[in-house]
Amino acid sequence: MTEGTIFKIKKYALHDGPGIRTTVFLKGCPLSCRWCHNPEGIDPRPQTIWRRTSSGRIDETVGTVMGVDALINAIEKDVLFYDESGGGVTFSGGEPLSQPHFLEALLASCNHREIHAALDTSGFAPTAVLDRIIPRLQLILFDLKIMDDRQHQRYTGVSNRIILENLQRIAGSRTPVRIRIPLIPGISDGDDNIGKILRFAGTLETIQGVDLLPFHRIGSEKYRRLGMTDLTAETLLPGSERVAAIQTRFESAGFAVSIGG
Ligand code: SF4
Question: Which CATH architecture has domain 3-259?
């Protein structure tokens, strides 16, 4: 039986694709972004996280190994909501493509049940994996972070070369894509980076829209509770005027834009 490791199932999600959705977060990510608000999604294995209670501090485990059937049963419970709202399931993370066999089996099951399936991805994965996964998807939410490769390596830990190649490949497959751009002051929100993303996105015909994701501090407490160094410690919050200016730039270029996904 195919199994994988997940760290959260979010029901009634409204920002991870159309309609009412269940978002499943798969554990494990090869990147280490300075703005990551899901640090429990980086390590592929279950790990200990502490939580404060009225009687003191207790340790819990974040990350559960699940079989495909059990997870699909949980997803299928809300199929009426998906059907009535045009929703479905979104696989997120971490990086879901880092568990390719598990993800492929889950998607095959969703396809069989005609449940709309979306993938939220950094795009950092072998092309062969992507080629197996793309035909099973109805929507891809693709993170585009930093266009300069050296800067990308500095702030995420990996090169963007395969990411950009993969996005071009997906565009060629004609599967609908929404580009998601994390807005991190001084890192990804500069005029130069935004201009390069605009030019790149303008060459891809299957872009349905752009989600601007302003950085927030929701995840910083989790780093401490996991015993990890807080990657976001020096990351600044974006101002609303800057976010609005970037939104206007994308809209002027003809893209449908939403803030926060
Ligand atoms: S790609 Fe996503 S999950 Fe992975 S480190 Fe970056 S923000 Fe976190």
Answer: Alpha-Beta Barrel (3.20)
